[in-house]
Amino acid sequence: MTLAAALLLALPWVLAPVVVLIRARHSRSLDEWPDAAPPPAALVSVVIPARNEARNIERCLRSVLATAHPAVEVIVVDDHSTDGTGDLARAVAQGDARVRVIAPEPLPEGWFGKQWACAAGARAARGEILLFTDADTAHGPDLVARAVNAMRARGAELLTVVGRQEMGNFWERVVQPQMFALLLARYGSTERISRAKDPREAIANGQCIFVTRAAYDASGGHEAVREHVAEDLALAQRFVAQGRAIAVVTGLDQLRTRMYTSLGEIVRGWTKNVVVGGREAAPWGRLGRAVYPLILLSGPLFLLLPPAVLALGAFGALPPWTVAWALPGVLVALTFWAGYYAWEELPPWYALLYPVGLAVLLYIVLLALARGSRVEWKGRAYRAHARR
Question: 158's torsion region: left (phi>0), alpha (psi -120 to 50) or beta?
Fold first, then answer.
């Protein structure tokens, strides 16, 4: 095979990162909107579902209480925690009348725990805007005001914020970017999602969802998505299906989240979502959902092929032309990931480990496929809803 032919064969791997970057253009940021709400300020009810979140709840609650928005109430839903989450929340909120810590009724059949906790918080809320946020988040003081202003300016009944993901240890830095790149490749820019008319092209970030009370109640709220493992995805899809306006914006300076802190947590967390939840977003209807596992597997396998071939070719196990084919794809991927890590203010040498991240991603996909609709999370076992 000639060098020109080898380079031509490498074109799909060379173009893949370029396509991802092109699709990411035209995203909008919360920084575009004012950091002070015009009077009279809307009452925002911040609902924090928390099950065994002793590690996170103090940071989250303190950041929420530091908001510059003048009208907030905070409802921490202690979802039958066994690690003292509720006591920690009460200690942080002591003397602050804005905060209530409540406990929901025992989880009924047919509900996921997070949806049940969110629904309990919504029932207790008095605000005209509800903010559902995870306990592993940290909020900037301007988050609420900017988000409320963005909702009003865009006429959105649901607005979700994509914040900065904290990655503190080796495995977080190696694996988490692969998952985020997968989501970016699927959905593209925030504006593309915001303009979606097809529910399957809609998604929300469950770490931070603002929704008007009127739209939440009219849509059926979390009860309507109680059997979906990816409740944020299902909620956004439901809004779009009902003709309601949604908006997705970035808030890298307003929201930070550390999802997982170990390889085990990463595997368990993404195994919960990547197949059962992802199938709900598959294009092409029933056909897309039927072939979705193959599509999901093909991604990491496709991207792992050049570095695997390059390694084998370097040791003489494959013909020399395979090195000429694999090298361009590997170099482009290394450039892409080096740029990403530099943007995240992390050492660019992590780019060299992108095949390791892909291998873990492949393992997560295989594990999730083996489990099917069975989901385990925080000591509870579920069977996820499967759309036909």
Answer: beta
User: Low-confidence residues of the chain, pLDDT below 70?
Assistant: 1-3, 275-277, 279, 281-285, 287-289, 384-388
User: What is the pTM for the complete model shown?
Assistant: 0.92
Q: DSSP string spanning 180-227?
A: HHHHHHHH--HHHHHT--SGGG----TTEEEEEHHHHHHHTGGGGGTT
Q: CA 29, CA 15: separation in Å to the nearest integer? A: 27
- Hunting for tokens 């009208």 — which residue is that? 71
* Cβ pair 348, 342 in contact under 8 A: yes
Check if the beta carbon of residue 114 is closer than 8 Å to that of residue 223: no
The token pair at 234 is 């299902």
Domain positions in the chain? 3-21+283-371, 26-169+187-271
Q: What pLDDT does residue 388 have?
A: 43
Q: How many other CB atoms sit within 10 Å of the CB of residue 307?
A: 21
DSSP reduced 3-state for 75: strand
233/146 Cα distance (integer angstroms): 23
Distance CA 38, CA 46 (A): 19
Bridge partners (DSSP) of residue 161 are 249
Q: Give the Cα separation of 318 and 68 in Å (integer).
A: 62
Question: Please, are residues 223 and 61 in contact by the beta-carbon 8 Å criterion?
Answer: no
Q: What single-letter DSSP state applies at residue 84?
A: S
Provide the pLDDT for residue 119.
97
How large is the angle between the packed helices 170-187 and 285-314, nearest 10 degrees? 130
CA dihedral over 290, 292, 295, 297, signed as positive or negative: negative
> Which residues neighbour 363 within 8 Å (Cβ) at sequence distance 6 or greater?
267
Angstrom distance (rounded) from CA 250 to CA 340: 16
Residue whose C-alpha is closest to residue 229's, from 182, 193, 278, 163: 278
**Pairing between β-strand 374-377 and β-strand 380-383 as defined by DSSP bridges:** antiparallel
Does domain 26-169+187-271 sit in CATH 3.90.550.10? yes
Q: How many CB atoms lie within 10 A of CB 96?
A: 10
**Per residue in 171-217, pLDDT tens?**
999 999 999 998 888 898 999 999 999 998 999 999 999 999 999 99
pLDDT at 190: 95
Residue 330 pLDDT: 94
Element (H, E) at 352: none
